[in-house]
């Protein structure tokens, strides 16, 4: 098989359910189609705050907030995989809990052998982002693979 016909490494597409992430999903699917590869959709859940966990425990209720967030994440990933299927692009999905989404994205990229990351940027104000770098900016600086930022 000629080298140009071999599938490229998968494309990592982190998603958080926003419009910007939807644009990143579309771009990732377009690139995967052209590059003859598949996409890995990825979602990072924030860890449950200790206060919330203790409140649920004291009240004797199920930890509903964490379960609801995990369910919402699974639904976002399922929707992205459905869009991939409609586009004829093979897809996988992964979700983790981590307080540092940038680090989680980079670990998942390595875990899945991805050769590129296509992600959204929420375009923080320059004065704010100078002191609080965005997740996309952190990924861009630390990634060992090309990163395409969709606005």
From TrEMBL:
Name of a matching Pfam family: Usp
Q: Which InterPro entries match?
A: Rossmann-like_a/b/a_fold, Universal_stress_UspA, UspA
UniProt domain UspA: residue ranges: 10-151
Q: Which residues form the signal peptide?
A: none
User: What family is reported?
Assistant: Belongs to the universal stress protein A family.
Protein known as: Nucleotide-binding universal stress UspA family protein
